[in-house]
Specification:
Elements: H1 2-17, H2 22-25, H3 28-49, H4 51-55, H5 57-90
């Protein structure tokens, strides 16, 4: 776990000190997108290799959809509550 924090801190330090030239930073979005695609590919490969996940895919799919719907509903409720509280505070 410490490796994640070390990587994050190293990235922040490099970003704050401007150690990377501007012409390389122009391609930062492309680099991030390529890394995301590689991550998704490796995750898909990992899921595909585990036969028990494939067998339970229907159950996992239904559970995932329900979990996503619940998260979206509660996110909307929280945003609505905070927005209404902010509007009251601005008056």
């Amino acid at each position: 776990m410490w490796l994640f924090y070390l990587s994050l801190c190293l990235g922040i330090i490099i970003g704050v000190t401007n150690l990377i030239p501007a012409k390389i930073l122009k391609h930062n979005d492309l680099l991030m997108m390529v890394c995301v695609f590689i991550l998704l590919f490796v995750m898909g490969l990992s899921i595909g290799l585990k036969k028990d996940i494939i067998k339970n895919f229907g159950y996992i799919g239904i559970t995932g959809v329900l979990y996503s719907i619940i998260c979206v509903i509660f996110s909307i409720i929280v945003v609505y509550l905070f927005t209404s509280l902010k509007k009251r505070g601005d008056k």
